Amino acid sequence: MSYRFLVVVAIFLSIAGCGSSDEVASSWQVPDLSIGVPDLKQDVVKRDVVEGVEFYDILRGEFGGDSYILSSGVLDSAAVGQYMALLKRLAIDYSLESAAERAPQGNQIGDILRIRSVRNRQDAEDLSRKLQENGLIFNVVYSAQEGLETTGPFKISLLKIDLNQFDGRIVNSLAQKTMQGAETVSAMSVREKSVAGINGGYFVFNDEVGDYGAPAGIYVENGVLLREASNDRPVLIVDNSGDKTNIIFGRSVRTELFLKQGNQYIQLNGLNRKPGLLLNCGGYEGRPLMEPAHDFLCTNSNEVIAFDRNYGAFTPVGDVSELILSPEGSLVDFSKSSGTEIKEGHTYIQFSGNKFFDFNQQETMELVQRVYVDGKEFQLKPGISMVSGGPTLILDGKLADGLRARQGWNPFPRKTESDDQNTDENATLPVGIENREAFYGNWVLRRHPRTAIGLTAENILYMAVVYGRNPGVSEGATITEMSNLMKALGVDHAMNLDGGGSSIMVLNDQPTGPFSDPQERMVSDAIFLVANE
User: Fold this and answer.
1) Domain ranges of the chain
2) pLDDT for the residue numbered 49
3) Which of 139, 454, 465, 466 pairs as cysteine with 157 (C-beta 3.0–4.6 A)?
């Protein structure tokens, strides 16, 4: 690998003095980060942020002649035959190619038809419209972002945090300090007075699939459960209950919620979310899938959902019965009302469809919450935060590709009803052939902007953002490439976070790379480094 290393020295003076930045620079060099073809040149600019924290601005590779092509995405055998017959009738040259990787289970996930005979993006878009008029849906994609071999370029932002030296905290921040609404990472950074940070977990991206801006999976803040888990997905745990931040990775998180009165109880479906809608699935009694399924909407017209002040100012409006409990668990009201103003300390339980609870109005009730990480109950306490992500990239120092199917990225879910509810914002296959194989091909195997976090056995925390969807500027990474990046950094555990237009790193409140959206995307939460004052 051709390697060039530039050092930008920031000098921090104190009464006790400071160590040599040159000594720090010579002790560690950015390894080959394994994105694109092997042994690409990496230009690196290093900056000392605060004690124990180093920022690396990395430009890997260079433009190598990539161009726009048309791609069908992953198709099943019946669709491939249909497409090939129509392309021959239209006298359009194409190639039939296998997906770049196999499914986590080891089997082939389908084939892809690609048309490479276009001269530029405009030609590709014109041909795409012509094909659509004939019933064929082809995406206009840049070849480097299709997951094919490429020399890049790749713009990578890397934070290296020595948790043994960093005099500060790693903190989660919830947008708008509520479960509804979103905010840019830059704005949250200003509020948290952070020195650096990255975007966090997945979230509800519009009001049709839930409450816009709400985390789409477990969220715990300072020991308080604010949102139930999308069961069996991975979790990042930030423990600030001691003198130093402790980071824990779980490959599977589950929650159980119960409304209990004496010996009677009813299991709840959710906490602080819009009834009937569960983005990413994995919920109690979810339909049509009980297993997690990323960017897929599960529904259920018969649910019991609890709300508290963390949800917002009012409970959701709908055809429900609503039970209101005082801070002591006494009954305040039970009626067909909804859209009720939420009072601090009170709990609001909504029953929809055929759900009901035969309670005694004179006795108190209790909301019981349990969180399980990797099969063991996890005790929440002040200082504990949790954010959902996935898939797991590295587990016990090894690539964790085999976990994808269990964590929401299964190309072959047990229920075929998934074919008509795929909500992936980038999947444009026609409904007749839409499937989770196509979703897997687009989401996992194509290059997109990505954000990931990993921890070594020596307590070195890495936060990495690979910017993307900017042809000739930065192409993004596949999920496997993010696993390889974290493996190259020597981590024991690593997890992917939200990506695409959400991917961003900020340093002193400023983005470190180019957005893939026209402007910085608003997200549900972020992870920050906050130095002690």
Assistant:
1) 42-63+153-251+381-415+430-531, 68-145, 255-372
2) 98
3) 465
